[in-house]
Design goal:
GO molecular function: gamma-tubulin binding
Distance between the termini: 128 Å
Number of helices: 1
Radius of gyration: 38 Å
Strand content: under 5%
Shape: rod-shaped
Family: Belongs to the BLOC1S2 family.
Pfam families: BLOC1_2 (PF10046)
Order of helices and strands: H
Organism: Bubo bubo (Eurasian eagle-owl)
InterPro entries: BLOC1_su2 (IPR019269)
Largest sheet: none
Helix content: over 70%
């Protein structure tokens, strides 16, 4: 009758140890989650601080594209003028 009692006691100790380990693991996971949350908040703040600069970059990019188009048109126009001038020169 003593053997089952000893086994039950060992089972209880094993369960107790498993519970302690599980509890520690959950605490570890909680710390990790807190760190991730903190880092995410930090990244969001940094991104928010960068936002105005990113908008300026986009605006500059659009302006450069428009300027490039204007330069192409000007180039085409000057080539037309040059061709007309050469025609007139031949007369």
């Amino acid at each position: 009758s003593l053997v089952p009692l000893k086994t039950t006691s060992e089972d209880y100790k094993l369960l107790e140890n498993m519970n302690k380990l599980t509890s520690l693991k959950y605490l570890e996971m909680k710390d990790i989650a807190i760190n991730i949350s903190r880092n995410l908040k930090d990244l969001n703040q940094k991104y928010a601080a960068l936002q105005p600069y990113l908008e300026q970059i986009n605006l500059i990019e659009e302006q450069v594209a428009a300027l490039e188009q204007a330069a192409y048109k000007l180039d085409a126009y000057s080539k037309k003028l040059e061709a007309k001038y050469k025609k007139l020169e031949k007369r």
